[in-house]
Amino acid sequence: MKILILGDIVGKPATEQFGAKLDAFRKEIKADAVIVNGENACLGSGNGISKEAAELLFAGGADVITGGNHSFRQKNMLDYLDTNPYIIRPANLPSASPGSGYTLADLAGRRVLVMNLMGRVYMDPCDCPFTAGDRILEREKGNYDLAILDIHAEATSEKWAIANWFSDRVQIIFGTHTHVPTADEQILPTGCAYITDIGMCGPVRSALGVKTEIIVDRFRTALPGRFELSDNPVQYQGILVTTNGFDKVTEIKRVVFE
Length: 258
Description:
single chain, about 260 residues, seven-stranded mixed β-sheet, six-stranded mixed β-sheet, 7 helices, 13 strands
Protein backbone atom coordinates (compact mmCIF):
# COMPACT_ATOMS: atom_id res chain seq x y z
CA MET A 1 0.00 0.00 0.00
CA LYS A 2 1.32 3.45 -0.96
CA ILE A 3 0.04 6.45 0.97
CA LEU A 4 0.72 9.97 -0.34
CA ILE A 5 0.64 12.62 2.40
CA LEU A 6 0.78 16.28 1.37
CA GLY A 7 1.71 19.33 3.44
CA ASP A 8 -0.34 22.40 4.26
CA ILE A 9 -2.32 23.54 1.24
CA VAL A 10 -1.90 27.33 1.05
CA GLY A 11 -4.16 29.61 -0.94
CA LYS A 12 -6.47 29.61 -3.93
CA PRO A 13 -4.10 28.50 -6.75
CA ALA A 14 -2.82 25.44 -4.87
CA THR A 15 -6.39 24.49 -3.97
CA GLU A 16 -7.83 24.97 -7.45
CA GLN A 17 -4.95 23.17 -9.20
CA PHE A 18 -4.91 20.31 -6.71
CA GLY A 19 -7.02 17.82 -8.65
CA ALA A 20 -5.21 18.13 -11.98
CA LYS A 21 -1.73 18.14 -10.43
CA LEU A 22 -2.50 15.25 -8.10
CA ASP A 23 -4.04 13.09 -10.82
CA ALA A 24 -0.89 13.10 -12.94
CA PHE A 25 1.46 12.56 -10.00
CA ARG A 26 -0.72 9.86 -8.44
CA LYS A 27 -0.63 7.85 -11.64
CA GLU A 28 3.15 8.20 -11.76
CA ILE A 29 3.75 6.96 -8.22
CA LYS A 30 0.72 4.62 -8.05
CA ALA A 31 -0.54 5.96 -4.73
CA ASP A 32 -3.43 4.04 -3.17
CA ALA A 33 -4.55 6.79 -0.77
CA VAL A 34 -4.07 10.52 -0.26
CA ILE A 35 -4.06 12.47 3.01
CA VAL A 36 -3.76 16.25 2.93
CA ASN A 37 -3.35 18.96 5.56
CA GLY A 38 -5.79 21.55 4.27
CA GLU A 39 -6.08 24.11 7.06
CA ASN A 40 -4.97 27.03 4.85
CA ALA A 41 -6.81 26.04 1.69
CA CYS A 42 -8.93 29.18 1.62
CA LEU A 43 -10.26 30.39 -1.74
CA GLY A 44 -10.60 33.98 -0.52
CA SER A 45 -8.53 36.16 1.76
CA GLY A 46 -7.29 35.19 5.19
CA ASN A 47 -6.38 31.92 6.80
CA GLY A 48 -8.33 28.74 7.31
CA ILE A 49 -10.11 26.28 5.06
CA SER A 50 -13.57 26.93 3.67
CA LYS A 51 -16.24 24.37 2.86
CA GLU A 52 -15.84 25.10 -0.86
CA ALA A 53 -12.08 24.55 -0.66
CA ALA A 54 -12.52 21.29 1.24
CA GLU A 55 -14.94 20.02 -1.38
CA LEU A 56 -12.45 20.89 -4.13
CA LEU A 57 -9.75 18.87 -2.34
CA PHE A 58 -12.05 15.89 -1.89
CA ALA A 59 -13.17 16.07 -5.52
CA GLY A 60 -9.52 16.29 -6.55
CA GLY A 61 -8.58 13.03 -4.83
CA ALA A 62 -8.02 13.65 -1.13
CA ASP A 63 -9.31 10.80 1.04
CA VAL A 64 -8.80 12.55 4.38
CA ILE A 65 -8.12 16.21 5.20
CA THR A 66 -6.38 17.11 8.45
CA GLY A 67 -6.38 20.52 10.12
CA GLY A 68 -4.60 22.72 12.62
CA ASN A 69 -4.75 26.01 14.46
CA HIS A 70 -6.68 27.70 11.61
CA SER A 71 -9.36 25.00 11.29
CA PHE A 72 -12.15 27.26 12.56
CA ARG A 73 -11.24 30.53 10.80
CA GLN A 74 -13.90 30.17 8.07
CA LYS A 75 -17.42 30.20 9.50
CA ASN A 76 -18.97 27.92 6.90
CA MET A 77 -16.61 25.14 8.01
CA LEU A 78 -18.14 24.78 11.47
CA ASP A 79 -21.19 22.74 10.40
CA TYR A 80 -19.20 20.95 7.71
CA LEU A 81 -16.75 19.64 10.32
CA ASP A 82 -19.69 18.06 12.12
CA THR A 83 -21.19 16.46 9.01
CA ASN A 84 -18.17 15.21 7.05
CA PRO A 85 -16.18 12.62 9.04
CA TYR A 86 -13.21 12.73 6.66
CA ILE A 87 -12.12 16.26 7.49
CA ILE A 88 -10.71 16.48 11.01
CA ARG A 89 -9.27 19.09 13.37
CA PRO A 90 -6.81 18.68 16.27
CA ALA A 91 -8.21 16.26 18.83
CA ASN A 92 -6.83 18.21 21.79
CA LEU A 93 -8.96 21.28 21.12
CA PRO A 94 -11.91 21.69 23.54
CA SER A 95 -14.48 18.89 23.41
CA ALA A 96 -17.19 21.47 22.61
CA SER A 97 -15.38 22.39 19.37
CA PRO A 98 -17.00 21.41 16.05
CA GLY A 99 -15.86 18.22 14.36
CA SER A 100 -13.65 15.38 15.48
CA GLY A 101 -9.94 14.91 16.05
CA TYR A 102 -9.78 11.60 14.24
CA THR A 103 -11.51 9.46 11.65
CA LEU A 104 -11.66 5.84 10.56
CA ALA A 105 -11.42 5.53 6.78
CA ASP A 106 -11.47 2.58 4.42
CA LEU A 107 -8.39 3.08 2.25
CA ALA A 108 -7.38 0.48 -0.35
CA GLY A 109 -9.18 -2.26 1.53
CA ARG A 110 -7.68 -1.39 4.91
CA ARG A 111 -9.27 0.25 7.92
CA VAL A 112 -7.09 3.28 8.67
CA LEU A 113 -7.20 5.47 11.76
CA VAL A 114 -6.12 9.06 11.01
CA MET A 115 -5.52 11.35 14.01
CA ASN A 116 -4.75 15.06 14.28
CA LEU A 117 -2.99 16.55 17.32
CA MET A 118 -1.74 20.09 17.94
CA GLY A 119 1.37 21.09 19.84
CA ARG A 120 1.40 23.55 22.75
CA VAL A 121 4.77 25.30 22.28
CA TYR A 122 4.25 28.71 20.58
CA MET A 123 0.74 27.59 19.61
CA ASP A 124 -2.81 28.47 20.65
CA PRO A 125 -3.95 27.06 24.01
CA CYS A 126 -5.03 23.43 23.83
CA ASP A 127 -5.15 20.28 25.94
CA CYS A 128 -2.34 17.77 26.33
CA PRO A 129 -1.65 16.06 22.97
CA PHE A 130 -0.23 12.98 24.69
CA THR A 131 -3.38 12.39 26.71
CA ALA A 132 -5.70 13.16 23.79
CA GLY A 133 -3.91 10.67 21.53
CA ASP A 134 -3.89 8.01 24.24
CA ARG A 135 -7.65 8.31 24.61
CA ILE A 136 -8.27 7.87 20.89
CA LEU A 137 -6.03 4.82 20.59
CA GLU A 138 -7.66 3.18 23.61
CA ARG A 139 -11.17 4.00 22.40
CA GLU A 140 -10.59 2.59 18.89
CA LYS A 141 -8.38 -0.35 19.86
CA GLY A 142 -9.06 -3.28 17.54
CA ASN A 143 -11.03 -1.17 15.05
CA TYR A 144 -8.24 -0.41 12.57
CA ASP A 145 -5.35 -1.98 10.68
CA LEU A 146 -3.09 1.07 10.39
CA ALA A 147 -2.76 4.30 12.41
CA ILE A 148 -1.57 7.66 11.06
CA LEU A 149 -0.90 10.85 13.04
CA ASP A 150 -0.56 14.47 11.89
CA ILE A 151 1.25 16.53 14.55
CA HIS A 152 0.45 20.19 13.84
CA ALA A 153 3.11 21.99 15.87
CA GLU A 154 5.80 24.65 15.80
CA ALA A 155 8.63 23.20 17.90
CA THR A 156 10.62 20.35 16.39
CA SER A 157 11.48 19.01 19.85
CA GLU A 158 7.80 18.76 20.74
CA LYS A 159 7.01 16.93 17.51
CA TRP A 160 9.86 14.51 18.22
CA ALA A 161 8.65 13.93 21.78
CA ILE A 162 5.05 13.27 20.70
CA ALA A 163 6.23 10.96 17.94
CA ASN A 164 8.33 8.89 20.29
CA TRP A 165 5.46 8.56 22.73
CA PHE A 166 3.19 7.09 20.05
CA SER A 167 5.71 5.35 17.78
CA ASP A 168 5.02 1.85 19.12
CA ARG A 169 1.28 2.25 18.48
CA VAL A 170 1.12 4.42 15.33
CA GLN A 171 2.68 3.37 12.02
CA ILE A 172 3.00 6.77 10.29
CA ILE A 173 3.69 10.07 12.09
CA PHE A 174 4.31 13.34 10.26
CA GLY A 175 4.54 16.98 11.24
CA THR A 176 2.82 19.99 9.69
CA HIS A 177 2.44 23.74 10.36
CA THR A 178 5.91 25.20 9.66
CA HIS A 179 5.47 24.92 5.85
CA VAL A 180 9.14 23.97 5.46
CA PRO A 181 10.05 20.31 4.78
CA THR A 182 12.67 18.71 7.00
CA ALA A 183 15.27 16.18 5.92
CA ASP A 184 14.84 13.71 8.78
CA GLU A 185 12.48 11.19 7.23
CA GLN A 186 13.18 7.81 8.83
CA ILE A 187 11.78 4.55 10.09
CA LEU A 188 12.12 4.49 13.87
CA PRO A 189 13.25 1.34 15.74
CA THR A 190 9.59 0.65 16.54
CA GLY A 191 8.84 0.43 12.81
CA CYS A 192 7.06 3.80 12.67
CA ALA A 193 7.66 6.11 9.69
CA TYR A 194 8.46 9.64 10.91
CA ILE A 195 9.30 13.09 9.56
CA THR A 196 9.27 16.38 11.51
CA ASP A 197 7.57 18.42 8.78
CA ILE A 198 6.32 17.48 5.33
CA GLY A 199 6.33 21.02 3.95
CA MET A 200 3.81 23.10 2.04
CA CYS A 201 1.68 22.97 -1.07
CA GLY A 202 1.78 26.56 -2.27
CA PRO A 203 3.81 29.23 -4.09
CA VAL A 204 7.52 28.60 -4.51
CA ARG A 205 10.08 31.23 -3.38
CA SER A 206 7.60 32.69 -0.92
CA ALA A 207 7.61 33.26 2.83
CA LEU A 208 5.36 30.36 3.80
CA GLY A 209 3.07 31.31 0.91
CA VAL A 210 3.16 35.08 1.45
CA LYS A 211 4.93 37.53 -0.89
CA THR A 212 8.53 37.65 0.31
CA GLU A 213 8.87 41.44 0.08
CA ILE A 214 6.07 41.90 2.62
CA ILE A 215 7.81 39.70 5.15
CA VAL A 216 11.19 41.38 4.51
CA ASP A 217 9.64 44.79 5.22
CA ARG A 218 8.00 43.51 8.37
CA PHE A 219 11.29 42.22 9.75
CA ARG A 220 13.19 45.36 8.71
CA THR A 221 10.74 47.93 10.01
CA ALA A 222 8.69 46.11 12.67
CA LEU A 223 5.62 47.70 11.06
CA PRO A 224 2.49 45.61 10.53
CA GLY A 225 1.56 44.81 6.97
CA ARG A 226 -1.24 43.00 5.22
CA PHE A 227 -0.21 39.51 4.11
CA GLU A 228 -0.75 38.83 0.42
CA LEU A 229 -0.44 35.43 -1.20
CA SER A 230 2.53 35.10 -3.52
CA ASP A 231 1.68 34.73 -7.21
CA ASN A 232 4.66 32.49 -7.91
CA PRO A 233 4.07 29.01 -9.42
CA VAL A 234 2.68 26.34 -7.10
CA GLN A 235 4.69 23.40 -5.81
CA TYR A 236 3.33 20.42 -3.84
CA GLN A 237 5.46 18.89 -1.08
CA GLY A 238 4.91 15.80 1.03
CA ILE A 239 5.89 12.22 1.64
CA LEU A 240 5.14 8.83 0.15
CA VAL A 241 4.96 5.96 2.63
CA THR A 242 4.91 2.33 1.56
CA THR A 243 3.59 -0.46 3.75
CA ASN A 244 3.94 -4.22 3.36
CA GLY A 245 0.89 -6.08 4.57
CA PHE A 246 -1.44 -4.29 6.95
CA ASP A 247 0.86 -2.52 9.40
CA LYS A 248 4.55 -2.81 8.47
CA VAL A 249 6.18 0.29 6.99
CA THR A 250 8.90 -0.46 4.46
CA GLU A 251 9.76 2.99 3.08
CA ILE A 252 9.26 6.71 3.63
CA LYS A 253 10.52 9.31 1.19
CA ARG A 254 9.99 13.00 0.50
CA VAL A 255 8.21 13.91 -2.74
CA VAL A 256 7.76 17.15 -4.71
CA PHE A 257 5.71 17.83 -7.81
CA GLU A 258 4.56 20.90 -9.73
